What does this fold into?
Amino acid sequence: MTTNVARAIAHSNIALIKYWGKSNSTLNLPAVPSLSLTLDGLTSTTSVQFDATLDSDQVQLDGKLTLGREQARVVAMLDRVRALAQIDTRARVSSHNDFPTAAGLASSASGFAALALASSSAAGLELGLEALSALARQSSASAARSLFGGFVNLLADAESAQQVAPSEHWDLRLLVAVTEEGRKPVGSTEAMEITKRESPYYAAWLAHAPNLYREAEQAIQHRQFDTLGASMEQSTLMMHASMWATRPAILFLTDATLSVMHRVRTLRGQGLPCYFTIDAGPHVKVLAQAEHAEEVERELAVLDQVLRVIPCAPGPGARLTTDEGPLC
Ligand code: DP6
It folds into this structure.
């Protein structure tokens, strides 16, 4: 090993066209193509140090030691990195998110992207972006997209994500309207497996998702905002509809979520172009063009259901940092 410590930064990404469901759960391959925007806000910073004096991996998230499933997912990635680097040294991992963890704000995407880069570098590996993306995907498919900046796809059955257009391609904003603090009751991995197993609408989701992907990709290439917004809202609602059809239903949308969705539609009706998307959590992310973003942000911020708005612009991919300050 040439070095045993590294720190990486990765940004969260929000899917404009959703990944929901796996074609292979063991390999964690997506069943549908997805298309995301990497954001400049919502950052995970992760440091990894392989240390021969440790007899087990130690994983801290936002200053707290993690145990159980969360820790196991990190250890599984470290095991893959150790196998590639042919080492068996345990590691100390410390990760910090500058936004609420596991609340539908894609903390696993930025977290595992940063971990893939930091852990492979700390182990002395020099993996290219494609290999890093594949490594991240095995832990969380949405994380594969956060290795890249700007507009990024992860196609059905693909091992790695790819950039569709750089962040400078289109000056869009995603305004993240946070509707509650705290963790979501069920994680996306489990929720999408239940949907696949139980929802009579899952087959319809699989059949229609590729059309939405194609429409959105074209809309991005030609910067057609209303087409992108319409395909994004439909992808969101088709994904949630597939979950609503399980028994018991998986409901991530709260009263606050629905109020914000209605408000977005009203604003649009009044001539302010904006569209919503919602992931596996209660928050609403609102897409706007840069010239309308401040007005949309003001309209969201005054709503009783909205605790705060985090404005995000298209952001860069994951990168190593030499900053050695404390993580939290
Ligand atoms: C709703 O990537 O968290 O955010 O691969 O099981 O870790 P796993 O799932 P995950 O699912 C993300 C689902 C989503 C949509 C998306 O980001 O495309």
User: Anything to note?
Assistant: DSSP finds nine helices and 14 strands in the chain. Residues 230 and 256 are 21 Å apart (CA to CA). Residues 15, 18-20, 28, 34, 106, 108, 140-142, 188-189, 279-280 surround DP6 (CB under 6 Å). The mean pLDDT is 94.
